[in-house]
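Weekly modeling sync, notes
Attendees: AB, CL, MP (scribe)

Item 1: holo prediction request
CL wants a bound-state model with zinc ion before deciding which constructs to order. AB pointed out that an apo prediction alone won't tell us much about the pocket. Agreed to run with the ligand included and paste results into these notes for async review.

Input as submitted:
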Amino acid sequence: MKIICVGRNYAAHIAELDSERPKDPVLFLKPDSAIILKNNPFVIPEFSQDIHYEVELLVKINKIGKHIDQKFAHKYYDEIGLGIDFTARDLQNKLKDKGLPWEKSKAFDGSALIGNFLPKTEFLSVDAISFSLERNGEVVQQGNSSLMLWKIDALIEYISKYFTLKIGDIIFTGTPSGVGKVFPNDSLKGFIEGKEQFSVKVK
Ligand code: ZN
């Protein structure tokens, strides 16, 4: 399986990082070796002094597809989840400055936390799902899929022009504003519509 991530999909997050609003979705990939195994902590890697959490809604692909039209995209997923795209921000900024690929800062071992998935039928609309992240009991990020610059079905159309989507692939749909640094012993908990979907310790 592969993980396809979307960058710069919420206006407020683009503003907080002083990034440019893209004309097209920004995409990057994480390998399956990035996934944190169940119940394991997130371990801060030695190559970064500035690891950020980015809470994101996830979409799990249930059918193989390429060149999927937006109006059929809903047939390619049944479940929505929540996760964290851990980012070595210091390294990412260096790579960005040099115009180099982001993988070392975004796709390293442990950079993908994948929480529970919920059937999409639990939601009135996948384009109005609220989610949040708590760090040590304090809400640090709050988002709603209605604020995505590219909604889930539009992302699937765009992504599948470049990458064949396969069963089990997971899309990280971008983070809302409020990203910040993690510290040893932090506890991070993610919520969809107020219900806990993951809990992870930082080491
Ligand atoms: Zn992200």
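Recorded for review: Residues 5, 7, 54, 56, 85, 172, 174-175 surround zinc ion (CB under 6 Å).
Action items: CL to compare against the apo run; MP to circulate these notes.
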